[in-house]
Amino acid sequence: MAKCELCGKTVTKGNKISIARSHVSRRATRTWKPNLRTVRLKVNGENKKMSVCSKCLREAKSTNNA
Prior knowledge:
The protein is α+β, with helices and mostly antiparallel strands. The protein has helices at 54-58, 61-65, and strands at 12-17, 27-32, 36-43, 46-53.
C-alpha cells in the first residue's frame, strides 16, 4: 500500500465528477495516491530505505527525524 513512513499519508478516495455536457450527476470513484520517493536515511546509526512523500522531502522532515 502507498504510505509515507514519516507522516503516514495514505491513499485518498473520492468521486471524479464528469463535467461534459453539464451532467454533474455522472460520478465515478477514483483514488489519489501520495507522491512517494524511495530515500536512504540514517536511522539509529544505520542506513535504511524509506518511502517518503515529496512534501516531507521539501520540509526536510527526513533530516530532522533521522
